[in-house]
Write a structure and sequence with these properties.
The complex is a heterodimer of chains A (about 325) and B (about 425). With about 325 residues, chain A is α/β, with parallel strands linked by helices. Chain A contains 14 helices and 14 strands. In chain B, helix 1 packs parallel to helix 2, helix 5 packs across helix 6 and helix 5 crosses helix 8. Classes of the chains: A alpha/beta (about 325), B alpha+beta (about 425).
């Protein structure tokens, strides 16, 4: 009975499907919500997130756009100013650079430039990250760049709950929110509460409690951090895994709290090391928890190269659980 | 208790860095004394064995009081002192050899220079203790001397674990006599006085010295403009050849030039004591260093005329660091034979200095300013510095003082020879 009860409360689901349910729920709940982007309609989305939605909601609300990121992101900003709640999908973060002018100079800035008169309740979703042999024009992790910009929020759902729940909260936000979905996560599968819904987007989350080191990760690196923590546990090192969830505004308090518990920190970030969000997290630890540190903060980031195409080179360029394990072991030493 | 300044009357013995029975060499730092100028390390000037202490930690005694008995080489019994020293000091002296003083104090130079004359350390400042911020904090809380802890962290760094292990080892009562020295409790270098008291005390010390100077010393003042274009051009070239850490400041050239010029003007280098001039042994240039919280001290760089610019730079760097940390050595504080003050950074052009008694001269430098400069019928723009001399008219006359400044000028026109 109890097993059946538990089964009744959760469903087996992929990250992609959780994301699709989130969009579907938003379309049903709020008539102002619509989805637009390249191939989101007839093709079902480049990563198949929106498959079936055109049939269900029609071309007014699931809109295919021309291949012009600047134009359709700008259209999204206009729609948001006009009272709609657009979800704009950009195929990958690399292509979002074509719309960077719209995102930075308009979406992030208009509230300020209008003296607080015009909010831009816009949500932009895009794929980020490597690991699928898509080479150097489709594989980078530039969310750290976006996290540099005041005026927008940066979300990086790494779990099924967040894939399912962050979108609605983002749509409720009166200001622009960018959601970065790591391409390697779409096929991950797991149990999700059947009644899963909106989640808060203001806090980092401890995904695994530990006492020896804080592994600070987000999006595509969370799984690697958790795997590293398992391996470390086998060697007697008790790692805490902190999922940042939101890169802007950073939940500094949770970061400092975790480091204060463990006294060591390794930041795992698929972005390039120089000027990365990992660098920002490290700086905040230094500013706020220096006297808690028992070792220098370490970072495991991507190699500073255009992401290679061959599988073995791509794997070598990316942060891996093994690298994290190695870094932590060197940091902790043999005992403790 | 050594006199660590003309106006010092008493000092507090803060910490013994040796214990009875220890063999000591000339130049070793054996104790820390608190004065109004901060914590000062006391050097020893003989080789021998520490026999016993006559002043205990925490006691404040007048200048001239015997602090300890040392059996000099030759007069000591072959067997070290243990039989003789029944009266072991009630406060167990920290059995720390000079190699491992409290963390606040840099290791003394004795470690690398077995028998140095007053010349200060030539080696760059010693390596910093590799200890994590957390471990340092825990060490303070537990009263563990980090210098005595063996590090097992990355690169041999001391971690919290190491500190806690050391504290545990210390707490566990070893029934055997403590042959292995337990780590000395980390003493704050300045236990006696609060910061505000220290400020007030330093102000009083400066007041006493300066009032005495103006009361007793008939000052004369001379000033001259010096063209610094050759010196600065040479320095630029020279620094291009050096790594960033080894680069020179122009003030080092000024110090060297002053020291070289003084060789020919011994009446400016020394002390006025008991109604007569006593020339200094060596040219030990006191460098006025202002403190962040106000006040200043002028510890000496020894034998500046015999040092090359790199050595003076190292000495200067080391002095500034230790002044700010409040740790100076007795010889540095007491035996400057002249003082140089450079107020250029504050933006003034001309310094009218007050001599630090019992010294008899003070050389001041203002800031380097670009000025129209006429020479050989031509006008050009040159970096110019105003050098000034405050002289004690009892010991020297303005004529000689003027020649001294002229010699200083000549030296700065040949920077490659400094």
């Amino acid at each position: 009975m109890s097993a059946e009860g538990a089964a009744a409360q959760t469903v087996r689901i992929t990250y992609r499907e959780a994301m699709r349910q989130a969009i579907r729920e938003a379309l049903i709940r709020d008539p102002r919500v619509f989805l637009m982007g390249e191939d989101v309609g007839r093709y079902g989305g480049c990563f198949a997130v929106s498959r079936g939605l055109l049939e269900e909601f029609g071309p007014e609300r699931i809109r295919d756009t021309p291949l012009s990121e600047s134009a359709f992101v700008g259209a999204g900003i206009g729609a948001a100013m006009g009272g709609m709640r657009p979800i704009v999908e950009i195929m990958t973060v690399n292509f979002s650079l074509l719309a960077l002018d719209q995102i930075l100079n308009n979406a992030a800035t208009i509230l300020h430039m209008s003296g607080g008169q015009f909010n831009i309740p816009l949500v932009i979703r895009m794929t980020t990250g490597a690991g699928r042999q898509l080479a150097a024009q489709h594989s980078h992790s530039l969310e750290g760049w976006y996290a540099h910009i005041p005026g927008i929020k940066i979300l990086t759902p790494a779990t099924l709950e967040d894939a399912r729940g962050m979108l609605w909260t983002a749509l409720e936000d009166p200001d622009p929110v960018l959601i970065f979905e790591h391409g390697g996560l779409y096929n991950t599968e797991g149990e999700l509460a059947a009644d899963a819904g909106a989640v808060e987007i203001d806090h980092a989350a401890v995904r695994r409690a530990g006492s020896d080191v804080s592994l600070i990760a987000y999006g595509g690196t969370l799984g690697k951090a958790l795997r590293a923590a398992e391996e470390l546990a086998a060697g007697g090192i008790d790692a805490e895994v902190l999922d940042l969830r939101t890169l802007r505004p950073l939940d500094t308090e949770s970061i400092l709290a975790s480091v204060t518990r463990t006294h060591r920190a390794v930041i795992i970030d698929e972005g390039w090391r120089s000027g990365s969000i990992a660098a920002e997290v490290s700086a905040r630890i230094m500013e706020g928890a220096f006297y808690e540190l028992d070792a220098p903060v370490a970072r495991v980031c991507s190699a500073e190269v255009p992401m290679p195409y061959p599988r073995h080179l791509e794997e070598a360029a990316l942060p891996q659980a093994a690298t994290v394990v190695q870094t932590v072991r060197a940091m902790v030493g043999k005992r403790d | 208790m050594p006199s660590l300044g003309a106006d010092m009357e008493a000092g507090t013995l803060v910490q013994w860095l040796v214990k009875p029975g220890d063999r000591i060499k000339r130049g070793d730092v054996i104790a820390v004394v608190e004065t109004e100028k901060g914590a000062i390390e006391i050097e020893v000037f003989v080789n021998g064995i520490v026999h016993s202490f006559t002043v205990q930690e925490g006691e404040k005694v007048p200048v001239g009081t015997v602090l300890a008995l040392i059996a000099a080489d030759g007069e000591a019994p072959a067997v070290p002192t243990p039989p003789a020293i029944k009266p072991v000091p009630p406060i167990a002296p920290p059995p720390v050899r000079p190699v491992t003083p409290a963390a606040a104090a840099p290791p003394p130079r004795a470690e690398k220079q077995p028998a140095p004359a007053p010349g200060p350390a030539l080696q760059p400042s010693p390596a910093r203790l590799r200890i994590s911020p957390l471990a340092m904090r825990v060490a303070m809380e537990l009263g563990v001397d980090p210098a005595a802890v063996k590090g097992t962290g990355p690169g041999g760094a001391i971690t919290r674990f190491d500190v806690e292990a050391a504290a545990k080892a210390k707490a566990a009562p070893p029934p055997t006599p403590p042959a292995a020295p337990a780590p000395a409790a980390l003493k704050p270098a300045r236990p006696a006085m609060m910061a505000a008291d220290k400020q007030a005390a330093m102000r009083r010390a400066i007041a006493a010295a300066m009032a005495r100077s103006k009361r007793e010393i008939p000052h004369y003042y001379l000033g001259t403009r010096i063209d610094m274009s050759r010196a600065m051009a040479w320095l630029r070239e020279e620094n291009l050849k050096r790594s960033v850490n080894d680069r020179l400041l122009y003030s080092v050239m000024l110090l060297k030039a002053v020291a070289l010029a003084l060789r020919d003007f011994p009446e400016l280098n020394g002390f006025w004591v008991d109604g007569a001039f006593k020339p200094g042994e060596g040219i030990h240039v006191g460098v006025a260093i202002s403190l962040r919280l106000g006040g200043l001290v002028a510890p000496a760089i020894h034998d500046v005329d015999k040092k090359n610019l790199s050595e003076i730079m190292t000495g200067l760097h080391d002095l500034v660091k230790r002044v700010r940390a409040g740790v100076l050595r007795s010889s540095e504080i007491a035996d400057a034979t002249i003082t140089v003050t450079s107020l250029g950074e504050q933006g003034v052009e001309h310094v009218f200095g007050v001599i630090y008694p019992p010294q008899v001269a003070l050389v001041g430098f203002g800031k380097i300013v670009e000025q129209p400069w006429a020479q050989a019928g031509m006008v050009g723009v040159r970096p110019v510095i105003m050098a000034s001399l405050s002289g004690d008219h009892r010991a020297s006359d303005g004529h000689r003082g003027g020649l001294f400044l002229a010699a200083l000028d000549r030296l700065l026109q040949e920077p490659e020879r400094l």
